[in-house]
Every structure is written in structure tokens, then in C-alpha cells.
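One chain shown below:
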Amino acid sequence: MVLMSAKSFIGGVRFGDMNATIPFARLLISNGKLSLRCFKTFDLTPKEVICEPIGKIPLLYSGIQFHHIHADYPWPLIFWCIRKGPILECLRKAGFELR
């Protein structure tokens, strides 16, 4: 894991049946922690989640799905974004497993 300063990304979110478009969600990534915020906050550590890029159509269907182990967090938990490459790189540097 590379030490890095916290990074923030604006996007959309889907958690359970709730879907909010860009720019209503924020993903904060720091060493050993991510926080997904939109109406609620979902905090995850590398031991609790695997991150999977999904979709191949920027602006329509592109994001990162978080496969988590929290029984009280909704399924699915997805962060919608336009450019997922920089986000995936930050997640990798922060110690998160990518699928």
C-alpha cells in the first residue's frame, strides 16, 4: 500500500433500490478506508470489500460496484462515474482489492 492523501470524487450512486445521478454522490478514498456518501454514508475498509469496475458506456453506464460483507448495508452498492480509471488507481493505492 502506498501512502496517499485523501482523494474525493463526485458521481452518482445506487444502493438497494435508491439511485441518484451524478453529481449527488461523493466517494472519499484514503489509506485503508473509503466512504461513499449520498443521503447516507457507507464506510468500508479493504478487509470488508472487493471493488469491481462495471459498465463500458461513459455517461450512461460506468461505475464501480462494491462487494461488501456488511449485513446492514444495501445490495447493490455502486458508485456511478464518468472516468473510473483514476478512481480504480486510487483504490488500488489505498489497499483495496480490485476484481
User: Anything to note?
Assistant: Helices lie at 85-93.
